[in-house]
Amino acid sequence: MTDDTPSYDAWARQWLAGQQQAWQAWLGGAAAAPAVDPAHALGAWLGGEQAALGGALGARLVAQGQQFLQLAEALGEGLTAQLQSGDPPDGQALFDTTVARVRATLAPDADGLAHPAGALDGLLEEWQKVAARSGLPPLPGVPPEAVPALTAYAAALQAYGACLAQVQHDALDRLQRELNDQHMAGGSITSLRALYDLWVDASEAAYAERATTPAFVAAQADLAHALCRLHRAGLAGAAGGAGKAAPPEAADG
Amino acid sequence: MADDQAPPLRVDAAALLAEVQQFQQRLAQGVGLLRDLGPVAVAATPRAAIYREDKLTLYHYRPETPRPGLGPLLIVYALVNRPTMTDLQPDRSLIRGLLAAGLEVYLVDWGYPDADDRGLTLDHYVNGYLDRCVDRVAARHAGAPLNLLGICQGGTLSLCYAALHPERVARLVTMVTPVDFHTPDNLLGTWVRPLDIDLLVDSLGNIPGEWLNWVFLALKPFRLTGQKYVDLVDLLDDPEAVRNFVRMEQWIFDSPDQAGEAFRQFVKECFQQNALVRGTLELGGRRVDLGRITMPLLNIYASADHLVPPSASRPLRDLVASTDYSERVFRGGHIGIYVSARARRLPAEIAAWIAERGADDAVTKVGKGTGKGAGKSAGKSAGKSAGEKSGQGAAKSGRKRAGRKAP
Questions:
Q1: Is there a single domain that holds both residue A116 and residue A229?
Q2: Is residue B368's pLDDT more than 60?
Q3: CA distance A155 to chain B (A)
Q4: Residues A119 and A219 sit within 8 Å (Cβ to Cβ)
Q5: Structural domain range at position A205
Q6: Minimal CB count within 10 Å: which of A74, A112, A175, B329?
Q7: Between these two residues, A155 and A11, which has the higher pLDDT value?
């Protein structure tokens, strides 16, 4: 941080005021969506301050705050569209629009690969730590002998990601059913937070069901095995390049 | 639709804006609080290290007012995660609660295994390290059998120890302890069974703590990597609540690496072969027969435990020979059993359970039940120093490892 950097309190006040103005204008139909993702902006400012944030906790807090606000953004888009059309507010249409928007993020990419959406970023980041600790060779340095193992690992990671994406589709189905059940019982969701909590409940229920299926269990085990084989191939390749026997396990110590 | 006036989702722009603004405000203020929070102490109860060996440390906690007749209590925590969970925050501390109930408490801290520990087996942990900790505690208490409290995987190790050395354990308490690893609702068990554990251990040596951490988070990923941080935003104006959150967070991500051979054995024998239930587990060439557990046993499990479901703990009842077997169901989860408001009652209940089985009476019972006799046990330990006993253990096992005492 340089001396020109404002104090945290001053920065936070300024940031908050700007963000809230932008959201107010956007939701009133008077402006485009906030240009800067609110939690991202906060995280970016705090980027140099992570050590003072209790290690990684601040980063996780900001990341998940961002996820929560993205749900608000999705709802907000539906709301502004309804406001601009001049039609009366329609909660069912708003929900359907929001779900469709989330489903779109789960759709396979141009290569036909499915990806889990941001809600599971935290889990995948933790897996990256596993991979790093398990001696995953840096991509530019992967020896030729290890390329097949690297390809197999990428496929295993993709298969696991597809399982997670499927869980998220299941979760949205469950959420729609749950919301409908609540509605039939005379209840309705009246806050973003209640919708988020209901979605988490639906997601965990969908995950618990999917996580015991042979396909999911196999995909998870395959991922672990593929990482180990890549680790071994990387070590063997490195040792071959150095003209000596493979070193012992890299995860030790 | 049940009522056109009340759609399933009733969020208008003003309400959404108010909620977003409040959330942003709390987030901004809270991050500032986190930034200024400073270090947060865990395991703050005064203690003394009375024994060290390799990575292991045996701690002693002294009660202000010891209650006579209870005997010492040795806590055996899991190899995974850190025993700081037993003393995480001052007002929610299992150890403080046990001390307040007048118990003299000892705690095994297994430490952080490194490359030197790759070859450690369950035999080393149970018949080696743990046995020598029991020696140390017994030596400070006239050689009397002690109370053993095993937690989670530490409970499984304690069951092994009690089965192999029944004369040394007066009473056994197991908390959230897996025994039957093949029950259908055990998600962790379902995941571990198809693992090629030889490939993992042969490739990696020790298993990185990050790997176990990932598995634990993966059991409930939406709550554990997402929702709990959104919930934290609600707590951010309460510094003490944030400190407690930070304590828990530090514990969660403080996962020691696992000694490769012991991990291989635990996964193969317990998770994959269910050897504890089948009676086929062998440590140091001796079969672990839970039927040799005849001392009073209190089995505490948590009704909503997602790591060790009740179905994994309850079969213990039918596997031990103890005629004094009790169960206590804790309404909560695997972690709530230490830090929830309800958990505050547990230490006093454990102390009461021990007190009801008075120390002298328990020693007699153990003697009768095992046929080996507490008197023999007491004499054996009391007549030798702990150091001598340690040497005796090495001679018995006949397996020596460089730089480390054999079990």
A1: yes
A2: no
A3: 18
A4: no
A5: 109-253
A6: A112
A7: A155
* Average pLDDT for B152-156: 98
Q: How is chain B split into domains, by residue range?
A: 48-207+258-397
**Domain co-membership, A233 together with A186:** yes
| A114 and A238 fall within a common domain | yes
Contact B309, B177 (CB under 8 A): no
Residues 30-49 of B with CB under 8 A from A: 30-32, 34-37, 40
Mean pLDDT of chain A: 78
Query: What tokens were used for B250?
Result: 């530090």
Q: Mean pLDDT across chain B, nearest whole number?
A: 87
Partner-chain contact A54 B203, CB within 8 Å: no
A213 touching B (Cβ < 8 Å): no
In this structure, is residue A100 part of a structural domain?
Answer: no
User: Is the CB of residue B210 less than 8 Å from the CB of residue A130?
Assistant: yes
Residue A102 lies in a domain: no
Among residues B133, B152, B160, B270, the one annotated as catalytic is B152
In the prediction, which pLDDT does A21 show? 76
Q: Which residues are registered as beta bridge partners of B325?
A: B297
Look at residue B51 and give its three-state secondary structure: strand
The answer to which of A5-14, B182-191, B318-327 has the lowest mean pLDDT is: A5-14
Nearest to B307 by CA among B256, B252, B346, B258: B252
Q: State whether A67 and A29 are in the same domain.
A: yes
The domain B48-207+258-397 is placed in CATH, from the list 3.90.1150.10, 3.40.1360.10, 3.40.50.1820, 3.40.50.2300, at 3.40.50.1820
Alpha-carbon gap: A244 to the closest alpha carbon of chain B (Å): 18
CB within 8 Å: A123 and B206: no
Test A91 with B11 for CB contact under 8 angstroms.
yes
pLDDT at residue B235 tops 70:
yes
- In this prediction the ipTM stands at 0.85
Please name which of B259, B267, B152, B262 lies closest in space to residue B208, comparing C-alpha atoms.
B259
